[in-house]
Each structure stands twice: as C-alpha cells, then as structure tokens.
Amino acid sequence: MRILVTNDDGIYSPGIAALAQVASRLGEVRVVAPDVEMSSASASITASRPVTYKRTRVPALDGIEAYRVNGTPGDCVMLGTTLWENVELVLSGVNIGSNLGNAIWHSGTLAGAKQAALLGLRGIAFSVPATDREEPRFDVLRPWAATVLGMLLEVPDLPLVNVNFPAVPPRGTAWTRQSVRHYDGRTVPAKDPMGRTHYWFTVVPVESTEEGTDRWAIEQGYVSMTPLTLDLTEHRALERVRKLGSWQKLKFA
Ligand code: MN
C-alpha cells in the first residue's frame, strides 16, 4: 500500500516524523509537506501562483523519501498523488495542537485528509495537544498511532477520520462526534511598537463539553476518533424546504 504523509506544521515538525515512522511499517511511504508552517490554512489550494517541490533530507525521517512544497497541505496532497501514482491512503499530522470541534473547519491538518477524501482516497488526520514546556511525547504516542491506524484500516467505508490524542498517555479509544456547540475562536486586539492596533486570532478554553464529542473524549483521556463526511448538505433542512415546493410554485404578490 502506498501511503502519502503530509501535515500543516511543516516538513521539519517532529510530529510528521513520528507519523511517517508508524506508516512505514504498513506500506511504502513518501512525505510531501509544506516547507513552512501552514497551520489554520484550511483546505486552500494555491491558485494565484505556481507551486514547486524539492527533495529534502530530514534526519528524523530515517531515510523516508521526503519532499517539501511551497504550498498548503491541500497542494501537497494534490501534487503528491499526481506525481506518485496509486496512493491509497493519506495521513496528515501528527499536528502539535488539538483539532477538535470547530477547529475541524480551520485546520490545515484536517485539510490534508479532506483533500484525500475529495480525490476518492482514504484520509486520516492526527493531532495531539500542544504543551508550553516540551514537545509531545511521541515515543508514547507512536504505538497508539499504530494501534489506531490498524483499527481504522480494518473498518470499510471510512474515507475520512479525525483522530486526536489526549495530553496524557491514553486510557483507550473512543468513537466520537464533532463538538460544535461552543466556538472557541476569539479576536484579540494588541498594539505594535508604533502604537498601532493589530489583531490576533486565538482560541480560548470552552466552558463545557458534551458527552460523546471529540472534546469530551480528550478530557476523559481517550483517543478520539471522529468519522467525517464531505457532504455539507443539511439533509433534514433540505427535506423540510423541499416540502415548501419548487421556485415556480412560490407566490410573489
Ligand atoms: Mn498545525
């Protein structure tokens, strides 16, 4: 099996090395990732300029073939699956920073996996909470990543999955749904050295979590696994509005 590994933290992140090492036990692996950090780039594709790649030697990748791209995670998956044929699985991460709830909309890590699903391939995104003091314990997480990957690949018809590890060594795994009730994004003003106002987009902790969601699982110390769909249609609303009748039948007095 050919496995493409990407991320949004950039090709030199320790997270991508951990994921590529795990993947290399399951198949033939190539790393195609952004040359600089692209966190929160979402599913953007670079359309206003051409994109190029360079072969890269990353010591932490232990000889795994790697290419850095001057583009987004979405670009990396487009380019990687075009230049390397018959890729079946795209793994994205391990992102240093959780991708829970609304972050699924902004995340470049998720975007790598979503782009795979858009191309009809399997995509799986992995994230771990960021810590202030030190790097996440990838030595502890690697066996868990291998276990989760093994589990997910056993399940048919699961084209897109968002996996989040807890901060502490996991106590197990949980199937979860995306938590969307609380939005944790904030716009925070600050001053530059010339006294002008600028803004940071940041996140604040959410007040409460609902059982069964991705946030809840992480709080409880589980590895959260959320199956996702590309179809954004609100099917219940569609059913409701279709009952209103077609455009032609609407009356405008
Ligand atoms: Mn990131």
Radius of gyration: 20 Å
Give the termini distance in whole angstroms.
62 Å
CATH homology-level superfamily: Survival protein SurE-like phosphatase/nucleotidase
Mean model confidence by pLDDT: 94
Bound small molecules, by name, code or SMILES, are: manganese (II) ion
Approximately what portion of the residues adopt beta-strand conformation? Answer: 25-35%
Proportion of helical residues: 25-40%
Number of helices: 7
Structural class: alpha/beta
Order of helices and strands: EHEEEHEHHEHEEEEHEH
Q: Give the biggest beta sheet.
A: 9 strands, mixed
| Sheet with most strands: strand arrangement | 3-4-2-1-5-6-7-11-8
Please name the CATH architecture: 3-Layer(aba) Sandwich
List keywords for this structure.
253 residues, Stationary-phase Survival Protein Sure Homolog, Chain: A, 26% helix, two-stranded antiparallel sheet, 7 helices, globular, alpha/beta
